[in-house]
User: Which sequence fits this backbone?
């Protein structure tokens, strides 16, 4: 089964995994409470992953990414097999304001059906959009078009913002 089979299904939980600050994060405590963008990337501090992570950082800082009560429209979580120390270095070097998880045992990758050996033995780069009810709404798989991941997040931030407008 591939990651695409998750669309329309409840988002898998995993964890706890350690974030870049050495704090445990359990998705079961997050899913169903707010919209999420979970993006899997091959390796921290590499060119493509830095481009993707910084693009998501910039998107998250836009006013359109914030609701009327000044909270983010969706929470962003990055996942790779890098160590906590490498995730911390990545976050600090590029001022990444969101959670980065160290999936050193590939627990999250397996839960999300995201291959650890896709393109020339490089882990697959996939972004998942999960709504606030915990359903996977859409995915993006592009190893080289980093902008496609950001466009997906921007699209769903706009959709989620409209869904949250009081009637």
Assistant:
């Amino acid at each position: 089964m591939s990651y695409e089979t998750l669309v329309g299904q409840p988002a898998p939980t995993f964890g706890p995994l350690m974030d870049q600050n050495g704090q445990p994060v359990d998705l079961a405590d997050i899913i169903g409470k707010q919209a999420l963008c979970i993006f899997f990337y091959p390796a921290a501090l590499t060119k493509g992953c830095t481009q993707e992570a910084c693009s998501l950082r910039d998107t998250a800082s836009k006013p359109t990414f914030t609701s009327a009560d000044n909270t983010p429209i969706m929470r962003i979580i990055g996942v790779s097999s890098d160590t906590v120390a490498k995730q911390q270095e990545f976050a600090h070097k590029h001022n990444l304001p969101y959670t980065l998880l160290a999936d050193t045992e590939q627990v999250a990758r397996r839960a999300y059906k995201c291959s650890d050996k896709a393109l020339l033995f490089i882990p697959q780069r996939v972004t998942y959009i999960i709504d606030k009810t915990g359903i996977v709404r859409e995915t993006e798989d592009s190893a080289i078009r980093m902008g496609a991941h950001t466009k997906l997040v921007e699209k769903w931030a706009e959709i989620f913002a409209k869904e949250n407008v009081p009637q």
The CA atoms of residues 7 and 137 lie 5 Å apart. The mean pLDDT is 86. Strands lie at 17-19, 24-25, 35-40, 74-80, 99-102, 126-130, 136-141. The chain has four helices and seven strands.
